[in-house]
Amino acid sequence: MDDVEAPNCQDDDLTLPRSAVNKMVKELLPHLRVANNSRELILNCCTEFILLLSSQSNEICEKRQKKTILPEHVIEALQELGFGTYVPEVEDVLSNFKTQLSHRNKGNKKLDKMGLSEEELIRQQ
Length: 125
Description:
Blueprint: H1 18-28, H2 36-63, H3 71-80, H4 87-114, H5 118-124
């Protein structure tokens, strides 16, 4: 894959939101104070990891002649990049996501089967 940057692309366009990273740090390390330069380093490492993983996933996707990166491509990329120890946890997260998604979809189907619009159901409450 070519390392071509988009025109007028700034570094801030390719970083995670600081607030999201700060929130994760606070949740994972609630009793520990983290220096600002350490937070910046964590932010840069997270961004670089995501860029590396998505790039490798994209290469795998292209090799398979697919247009959409699938979870299997990401898992294979993790293994190729030497992060195979994380694969079982990633598969668990994927499984939980699929379960939650199916529950959400079932809830929507129940509303459809009732034959009433969402507005009508709200009025009936």
